[in-house]
Design goal:
Elements (H helix, E strand, L loop, with lengths): L1 H8 L10 H4 L6 H14 L12 H8 L3 H13 L3 E4 L3 E4 L9 H9 L1 H25 L2 H20 L2 H18 L3 H25 L3 H19 L3 H22 L1
Antiparallel strand pairs: 1-2
Helix pairs in contact: 3-5, 4-5, 7-9, 7-10, 7-11, 7-12, 8-9, 8-11, 9-10, 11-12
């Protein structure tokens, strides 16, 4: 619930009240506008799967509307299966927002060497795109989150925990994708998340054979980070491409 509350405070609008142009649309009820706002928060990742949302009272205060309007909007989102009420616990964002690959296909792809290289090629395209748009569209809060994620990667690496390090890299990629402000790209990354995380872990296991290679990978990732936070889209994309190209090259030689 804390994360959702923070998401509300860090919304795209400068005011916590409903957008003025929507309020003036006489064809829309307040609950309809709220429904659209909540859906946008879900799409752009401010509301995360499985999280508890604030109470009706808190939401009514935040949006400066009646609790009845909040209640009606929530009911509509429940009908769409975007929200789920749990008796005695509250209302939650559905934990099935992003449907990952089905388990048999996931296991097949994650265990096939050829698929691992295919995934690296896919990451080349996706991470280049997300890095470009993150640099172009990200705000100061986005960059702060990305930097914190990067620090976590370094901390886990220093501890020699590659499992936690791979999870931290995945969270870093999610944060970069959120900064890119592209809801389709975010859905693709979330859907591929289990597969990507396992791919990252396998890459780390192979890189353990030569620590100097891992240092180069770290350097590339830092170049991506610096380009994004310096708002240099082309440099961010090129750095991401160089990063993935290097990983593919060394893994091809190690296999």
């Amino acid at each position: 619930m804390i994360l959702v509350s923070v998401a509300l405070e860090n919304g795209k609008t400068n005011s916590n009240k409903l957008p003025h142009d929507k309020k003036m649309d006489m064809n829309l009820k307040v609950s309809d506008i709220l429904e659209q706002e909540f859906e946008q928060y879900i799409l752009d990742g401010r509301f995360l799967a499985g999280e508890k949302i604030p109470s009706e009272r808190e939401l009514a205060k935040y949006f400066d509307v009646s609790r009845a309007s909040i209640r009606e909007a929530i009911q509509k989102l429940e009908t769409k299966k975007l929200l789920i009420k749990k008796q005695g616990e509250g209302t939650f964002i559905s934990d099935k927002l992003w449907s990952p690959l089905n388990e048999p296909l996931f296991e097949l792809l994650s265990s096939n060497p050829t698929s691992q290289m295919d995934l690296l090629e896919s990451r080349y395209a996706l991470e280049g795109m997300m890095s470009y748009y993150a640099a172009e569209r990200g705000n100061d809060l986005d960059f702060e989150i990305i930097k914190n994620n990067y620090k976590e990667i370094c901390d886990f690496q220093n501890k020699g925990n590659i499992e936690d390090e791979s999870r931290a890299v995945m969270q870093y990629l999610i944060s970069v994708t959120k900064a890119a402000k592209n809801v389709v790209l975010l859905q693709i990354i979330n859907s591929l998340r289990p597969l990507l995380e396992k791919n990252i872990l396998k890459n780390f296991e192979m890189l353990e054979q030569d620590f100097s290679l891992k240092l180069t990978v770290n350097y590339h990732r830092e170049m991506v980070l610096n380009a994004i936070c310096s708002r240099k889209p082309n440099e961010a994309r090129d750095a991401a491409h160089a990063h993935l190209s290097f990983i593919k090259k060394i893994l091809t030689n190690l296999v």
